Amino acid sequence: xxxxxxxxxxxxxxxxxxxxxxLPLNLRKLTAAPTGSRIIEITDPAVRDKSGFNHDIIENMxxxxxxxxYQTDEPEKIWNQLFSExxxxxxxxxxxxxxxxSSHMELVEVIIEKLKKSxxxxxxxxxxxxxxxxxxxxxxxxxxxxxxxLQCFGNDIAEYDNRLYLNxxxxxxxSRTLTQTCSAIINVPVLKDHGIVGITLSMKNFFxxxxxxxxxxxxxxxxxxxxLYQMNLIxxxxxxxxxDALDAQYEGGPPFKPQWTWPFNGLLIGVDGVALDRVGWHxxxxxxxxxxxxxxxxxxxxxxxxxxxxxxxxxxxxxNKIDWQKIN
Amino acid sequence: MNQKNKIGRRKFLGQLGGTGxxxxxxxLAPSLMGFPAEKNTHQFEAHWYEKQAYKKVLCKLCxxxxxxxxxxxxxxxxRENWDGIYYTLVYAKxxxxxxxxxxxxxxxxxxxxxxxxxxxxxxxxxxxxxxQNWQISQIxxxxxxxxxxxxxxxxxxxxxxxxxSIAYTYSEPVIFAEYMYDTAVAGNNxxxxxxxxxxxxxxxxxxxxxxxxxxxxxxxxKAFSEKYYQxxxxxxxxxxxxxxxxxxxxxIWTEIVYLVVPTFNDSENEITQLSRWMKNxxxxxxxxxxxxxxxxxxxQNLPPTPTKTLEDARQIALSEGIKFVYIGxxxxxxxxxxxxxxCKKVLIERQGFYINSNNIKNEKCPFCGVVIPxxxx
Lengths: 328, 377
Known about the structure:
Number of strands of chain B: 17
Number of strands of chain A: 15
Largest sheet of chain B: 8 strands, mixed
Radius of gyration of chain B: 20 Å
Strand content of chain B: 15-25%
Mean pLDDT of chain A: 90
Number of helices of chain B: 9
Distance between the termini of chain B: 51 Å
Oligomer: heterodimer
Distance between the termini of chain A: 8 Å
Largest sheet of chain A: 11 strands, mixed
CATH topology of the largest domain in chain B: TIM Barrel
Low-confidence stretches of chain B: 1-38
Mean pLDDT of chain B: 90
Strand order of the largest sheet of chain B: 7-8-9-10-11-12-13-14
Shape of chain A: globular
CATH topology of chain A: Rossmann fold
Number of domains of chain B: 2
CATH class of chain A: Alpha Beta
CATH superfamily of the largest domain in chain B: Aldolase class I
C-alpha cells in the first residue's frame, strides 16, 4: 500500500475505536478525532543522507504519520486542533545517551516548526529533560534566561514542585516544567533497549520528569513505570507521542552502543503511550531475534510494566487490539 | 521558577544558628530547588565496585549490587558510572551538618551527655515509606545545595565545636562510605571518635573496613520480617541481621532502633521473635530503642504509635531477657532512662535528648557494682 492509497483507505474506513482510557482528557475538548490505540509506524530510508537526516523527509513523515493517526488528509490542521495559541508546549526529549542515541535535534526542529506554524510563539515552546548537561551533551543549546525565545532547559534549573506526588508504588517530586509551566506535552522518546527494564520508550521517558528515577528501576520497573504514567498530570497533558526511531537500539541500552544500533529510519506516532510501547517492544524483540539475541524475557528483562499498564486501563497493551498501521 | 521564596541550605542553617534546633523535627525541609548543578562531579572514584564488560559496573557497597550502565546511577542516586568508571558524587559534599546531643542519634550507652558533630550527604540505599528525612535521603546531589568540606575540615570543625565524636547520620551513611571512612580517620587523628547511624544494609567487606575506624554504630532495624522489608523499606532483612552479627563479632559498640509502625511491625509475635534473635545472636547487652512512628512521606495515613504499644514492646523485650530496652520519641517517658539490670535503680535519667542525671561511676552501677556495658569515657 502506498501512502496515497493508505490515506484514502484510512479516511474511508473511519475510526471505529472505542478504546478511550488513554485519551488525554484535554484532548476530548479539542476537535481532533480520537485515535484510540492506533499507532503509526512510518519509515523512509531516504530520510538518512550524507549530512545526517533530511529535514524535508522528516517533515513529510510527520505529516503523513499524523494524517494516518487522525485519519485526515489535512495533517497541518491537526496541530491547531491539538494545541491552542495559549498553550505552553513542552517537548520532552530523551538525552541521557549524549550525542548519539538521544532524541534527534532534526526531528525536534521539525516539531517546533509545526508548532510555530500553528500559531504558538517560540517563547511558548520548551525543550526539556532531566539535566542541562544531558541536553547539552545531545547538542541542544540551553536557553533559560531569554524568555522571549524558544526555551530549553533541564529540571536542575527548572526546579521540582514542592508537592510529593503519590500514585501506587511511586512517590516523587515532579519537574515544575511539567506541573506548572507547560499546559501540553509532546513526548519524544527514543526507540531503544534498556539494560534493566527491557525497553525505554513513551512511559519510561517520564522518569526524566521525576526527582528520584533511581528508586524505580528494580523489578524491571514494574509497576513503577506504569504507576508513574497513570498519573493524571502526565496523561492529561501529554497530547501526542512521537517516538524517534530514526536510529534504534536493540541491545546494550540505554547508553548508546553503535554495535547494537540499526537505522530504523522511522517514527512511531500515537496518543496511547502504552500501545506505542507495546509496538516498540515488538519491534525490538523482532530485531533481537533477527540478530540472534535471546528475547528480553530470557535475559530477565521482560518489560512487564507495559502489560501492567494495560491491565490498569491506561492504554492498550494487547498487540492484537492495537491498530498498528505501517507506512513505508 | 519564582526563586524569591526559596530558602537555601546555608540560609537555613544560618537561621538555626547553633541553637540546637533539631533538623529532623524542625519541619523546615531543605530546599530542593534552583541550585546550580554540581560541576566536576566525577572526581572521586568509588572504592567498592567491579568493572564489567561494555563499560558496565557492579556496585559492591550494599547488598543490592546494582549493575549500572555507562552514564547511569545506582539505586542510591549518588554513585554514577561514567565511561566505565564508578564515581561517588557526594565525597566531601555534605548537604547538612549540625551539632547534636549524642542522645538524638540515639546512642544511650556512648558518651552520654556529650554532643556529636553530625553530618550527612544526600542519598539512601533504601526507600522507607515512613522516612522522616526523605527531603535529603531520597534526592540526588544536584537537587540540593551542598557544602565543600574535606574530611580534615570536618574533623577541625568537630574539634572546634567541642564534640568528642563525629556522627554520620540523617540520611544513610553507607552511601557515602568513602567520605565517612576518610573523615573518621581525620577525626581519629584529632582523638575524635566516629559513630555510624545506619540501616545496616551494607556488604561485609566495606563494613569490616569501616569498623576499623568507627567507635560505635546504631542500626535501624526496621522490622523482623522480610515482607516488611520488601513492602515498606524496599530492602532486605537478612543482610541487616548479618551486619549486626558482624558488628558484634568485631566488638563495635552497637545499639538498635526499632521504629514501631502501628499494625505493620508491632505484633507481639514479631517483637518476641526479634528479642529472641537478639539474645541468641547478639547477647542481652545490646540496647534496643522502640521508637514512636509519626506519619511522614508516603505513610501519612497512619496515626502515631500509641505509647501503650511501645510500652508493650519494651515489656516483651525485657521479659525475653534483653537488659537495656528504651522507648523513643516520647519525651519524659520513664522508658528513656537507663536502669541497672541487677538492682533496677535509675542510672541515667533522661528528658528527651538531654541528661538530668548520670549515676554511672567507673562504668558500673554505683548501687550494686554491676558493670554497665557501653563506652562511657
